[in-house]
Amino acid sequence: MNNIMLDIETLGTVITQIGAVYFSDDGKIGDKFLVNVNIQSCLKYGLEIQYKNLKFWLERANLITWMKNTIPISTALARLTEFCNKNKKARVWSHYYDVMILELACYKIGRKLPFHYKRWRDLRTAVDLAGLKRKKKKKDEKNHNALDDCIYQVNYLTKALRLLMDKKNVV
């Protein structure tokens, strides 16, 4: 599979959960990755909890899936690096915010980003260029579990990529 979708859950710059999936251009899901990160380990490295993110989670406490079986941020990033390096040519898709926070965490603990920066692709840019309009729903479709969110994002990214390919063939 030649793509990875990446998603993180945070309390600001504190990472609480990292999810990733390999997927093909047609949206088939491959290997999956999910780790829950120990909050204290993030704080130890100077990552910070932000009020707005804490408030978001407190209002959705029933959705929290990242409190059990946590591992240190350094271990989580090492495992993510192993996962991303199964295919060193795979494009890594995510929202910019996720990569920004991930890169900060890597910097704070003295690691490199788990993938070369040239592999990264912005999910929102692809969706915007495709002209894909996501319907606004009253209820949030995402459950804010990083792995589930990856699969949700693969769904609409592959639609956007198909639209872009169709436009390319028309021009």
Order of helices and strands: EEEHHEHEHEHH
Instruction: Note the gap between the termini.
Output: 28 Å
Give me the count of strands.
6
Structural class: alpha/beta
Low-confidence stretches: none
**Helical coverage, percent range:** 40-55%
Give the total of domains: 1
Q: Globular, elongated, flat, extended or rod-shaped: what is the shape?
A: globular
The CATH architecture assignment turns out to be 2-Layer Sandwich
CATH-defined topology: Nucleotidyltransferase, domain 5
Q: For this structure, what is the CATH class?
A: Alpha Beta
- Going by CATH, the homologous superfamily would be Ribonuclease H-like superfamily/Ribonuclease H
The rounded Rg comes to: 16 Å
Question: What characteristics describe this protein?
Answer:
six-stranded mixed beta sheet, globular, 43% helix, Nucleotidyltransferase, domain 5, alpha/beta, 6 strands, 6 helices, 20% strand
SSE map:
Blueprint: E1 3-10, E2 15-23, E3 29-37, H1 39-44, H2 51-58, E4 70-71, H3 73-84, E5 91-94, H4 96-109, E6 120-122, H5 123-130, H6 146-170
